[in-house]
Amino acid sequence: MDVMEKLTILTDAAKYDAACTSSGASRGSRPGYIGNTSSAMAGCCHSFSADGRCVTLLKVLMTNCCVYDCKYCVNRCSNDTRRAAFTPEELADLTIQFYRRNYIEGLFLSSGVMVSPDYTTERMIRCLDLLRNRYCFNGYIHAKAIPGTDPELIQRLGLLADRLSVNIELPSEEGLRTLAPNKTRKAIFRPMGLITSTLRENKEELVKYRHTPRFAPAGQSTQMIIGATPDSDRHILSLTQALYDKYRLKRVFYSAYVPVVESSLLPSVDTKPPLLREHRLYQADWLLRFYGFQAEELLDEDDPNFNPLVDPKCSWALKHPAFFPVEVNTAGREELLRVPGIGTVSAGRILCARRARKLEHEDLRKLGVVMKRAQYFITCKGKVLDGLCLRPDSVLRSLTALERAALPASEGQQLSLFDPA
Amino acid sequence: MEVIYRYDGSLEGFLCCVFDSYVNKELPAEFQDEAHLVPSLFPARWVGTDLRHAQRILVSLEKIDPWAQELVVKGFLTCAPDREMLLYRFIRALYSVGRPLLRRLSDDAVLPLLQAVRHLDGEVHLLKGFVRFSEFEGMLAGEIRPKNRVLPLLRRHFCSRFYNETFLLYDRTHREALVHQNGKWAIMPLDSFQMAAPSAAEAQYRRLWKRFYDTIEIKERHNPKLRRTHMPQRYWDTMTEFQGEDYFTAADSGAPEPAALAEGPGGSAPAPLLRPPAAPPSPTPGP
User: Fold this and answer.
1) Which range marks the domain in which residue A326 is found?
2) CATH number, domain at A223?
3) Which of A277, B93, B167, B208 has the fewest Cβ atoms within 10 angstroms?
4) Closest Cα of chain B to A15: distance in Å?
5) What are A264-290's pLDDT values in tens digits?
6) Residue at B55 is within a domain
7) B25 and B48 belong to one structural domain
8) Do B241 and A47 make contact, defined as CB atoms within 8 angstroms?
9) Nearest C-alpha of chain A: how many angstroms from B215?
10) Percent of chain A scored above 70 by pLDDT?
11) Which of A4, A44, A408 sits opposite B211 (nearest CB)?
12) DSSP category for residue B22
């Protein structure tokens, strides 16, 4: 089998992994080595595929042979699909040649479980070792840690990679039991905890000895599949919050379930991937990480799922009328960040600009505040924007109308798809 | 009396215009680049470039705030049609108000410049990812068609990333090229540049990339509008994944080198477009 075919099979098998970021690691160039990870602050997207997802890393599997039989997965052993495996040399050459042409920011290496987790991880280590030490690759590497791998191997993997991730796969224990019989919640959280503690130790050592080899400098991330099990948004978001707080994860990714197989345990094959739900979860994820929100604030027991019509921040704002209006000229950063239409950048600009002089509504627009949303929730010098109707139902109606245009395009197409049938 | 200032089109030249306008106590009605002279009713004044005058302006800006200097240097690289006027208004206001001006983010003397610089920074960020190189006998060459003059800002990124490579990045809009070899670089004007046909190996890597790009899409999530939002279509024509069939077929053996590379990047660097970078521009000692 030639490289072209292998690349096709192993890309196709890896594409459902959501994580494709290159942020968090900052390593300058080294003489004799190729590449750096200096575009670190925001990551660097090298392309966008026709589904609008970014292509940053060469995202492939080492092999798609797998001994596990997870029901939701294309690579499960009971699926009749073509199998392939890269040799370490083939993969290293592809990575280097793509990297030199600036096609990619680095390598995302995952793998099906061949023989055993240890065996698979050893193969991945061999490949990364070749890439780092013989091909002198100094760019970004994201590697998957496979649950059940020996801690020492994970340690070695982390010294070669910039970021490690362990996939949670399904948000609940029941989901795992029915759909991924070879995986348990405990087995997944063990390597995650191990990586967290190693990261902490490594940080302490770096303080003492500057030249300590760095373990996964870009931290760890995870992803879970949305919509394959009946878990509520509230459950997913609380889990996310716990992962950020307890395991110090850098990112939690959500992947809308794309039906790949007919099974009585799964949504039917004609189900559309729940893209809007995924979108709302990502919006909420941002609120947790950058806006100082807590999961419990966004969703409660009576209302365990997000409103599809308005974004989570608007929906929080509508439920807490007592918090508003916020006076732009005096409110603190935390308060500003709670206003729909004000983001981290525009909040920063407001804080800067208002020290020069008091701000008016017109100034806010120039500072990049989305006034279509923010106008209902703010005052400038104590004044609400002229001629604005603030009855709760009319506010909700206008906010919903704004959102309609911004909804993912596929949601709009969904309706038309039913017509021909 | 309003006057038109004509200068040589360089940042230093423009700063001398600013200098002269203070010396002569006049408000320039317009700035004209030597290369784009337009007849006008106003009297014109030719401003010669005196590097000491330019340096004095730059230093005075830095004393007010390093960010002010950065805005002016970057502002000159933007594609705003009236960038000289924007910059002039900004500098004048800065001299009269001082540092607090930099907080007036919605001020008419500041906002248009900020927006132009944001547009430039955005394009630089996107192009760090969207630039595509091709290999010709060990050398890399790529071309872009940006709106702003991004090469001075892309330089540090690519020279650091491809430290051991010899490469040429051609800006088709502004007809200049960034060349890098052995840790030395230069940005030089280059009137034409034609990429040679690919070798067999190069064509194969292009095909592999195209295949990867086509395969990574999840068909059930197809969303071309989202793709255009993240990656505006104007960047597509220089990206490997959107090229026609010819692009992926190798030339016969003995493909000629790209003409531009034959000149070699040994030439002396033109006046630095940015304030002297942390690493000395050229020549830097090799590894």
Assistant:
1) 312-406
2) 3.20.20.70
3) B93
4) 5
5) 888 888 888 899 999 999 999 999 999
6) yes
7) yes
8) yes
9) 6
10) 95
11) A4
12) H
Q: Which residues of B touch A103 (CB under 8 A)?
A: 132, 209, 240
Residue B179 lies in a domain: yes
Using CB atoms and an 8 Å cut-off, which of residues 48-87 of chain B contact chain A? none
Q: Are residues A53 and A114 in the same domain?
A: yes
One domain, residues B32 and B77: yes
Q: Is the pLDDT of residue A351 over 90?
A: yes
Same domain? B43 vs B107: yes
All residues of chain B having their beta carbon less than 8 Å from the beta carbon of residue A12 are 215
Quick check: is B285 in a domain?
A: no
- pLDDT score recorded for residue B114: 96
Q: Cβ contact (<8 Å) for A353 and B157?
A: no
Query: Where in the sequence is the domain holding B118, given as residue range(s)?
Result: 3-122
* Residue scoring higher pLDDT (A388 or A3): A3
User: Does residue A182 lie in a domain region?
Assistant: yes
Query: Can you give the pLDDT at residue A406?
Result: 58
Same domain, B117 and B210: no
Number of domains composing chain B: 3
Q: Which of the residues A48, A64, A260, A417 would you substitute to probe the B interface, choosing the one with the greatest number of B C-beta atoms within 10 Å?
A: A48
pLDDT at B259 over 80: no
Q: Kindly state the percentage of chain B with pLDDT values over 90.
A: 75
**Same structural domain, A144 and A112:** yes
Question: Which ipTM score applies to this complex?
Answer: 0.91
Q: What is the pTM of this model?
A: 0.88
Average pLDDT, chain A: 89
Chain B residues within an 8 Å CB radius of A408: 223, 226
- Across the interface, whether the CB atoms of A102 and B239 are under 8 A apart is answered no
Domain tally, chain A? 2
How close B203 comes to chain A (CA, Å)? 12
Residue A45 covered by a domain: yes
Rounded to an integer, what distance in angstroms lies between the CA atom of residue A194 and that of residue A184?
Answer: 16
